[in-house]
Amino acid sequence: MTTSFYDLECKDKKGESFKFDQLKGKVVLIVNVASKCGFTPQYKELEELYKKYQDKGFVILGFPCNQFGKQEPGSDEQITEFCQLNYGK
């Protein structure tokens, strides 16, 4: 059995199912993120990119990861608060 991108699903920050099939027809950028990483300033550029192209169907999916150097130790709520306070989303 072959699985396509649109067959996938994940849990959103509220723990609810997010099915990728709702992204059909959009341009999707998937990013592995960590708020304590040296690359964290990229959030600013990602937010700017999203704002510039969101009306054209551009979507960014950020997946927090704590597996590499423990650079994302926070809970979903803490990560959301960090992003909202610092980058607006």
TrEMBL record:
Superkingdom of origin organism: Eukaryota
Q: Which organism is it from?
A: Marmota marmota marmota
Protein name, as recorded: Glutathione peroxidase
Family assignment? Belongs to the glutathione peroxidase family.
Matching entries from Pfam families are given as:
GSHPx (PF00255)
Q: Which UniProt keywords apply?
A: Oxidoreductase, Peroxidase
Q: Which residues cross the membrane?
A: none
Listed under GO biological process in this entry are: cellular response to oxidative stress
Query: Could you tell me one molecular function GO term of this UniProt entry?
Result: peroxidase activity
Q: Which InterPro entries match?
A: Glutathione_peroxidase, GPX_AS, GPX_CS, Thioredoxin-like_sf
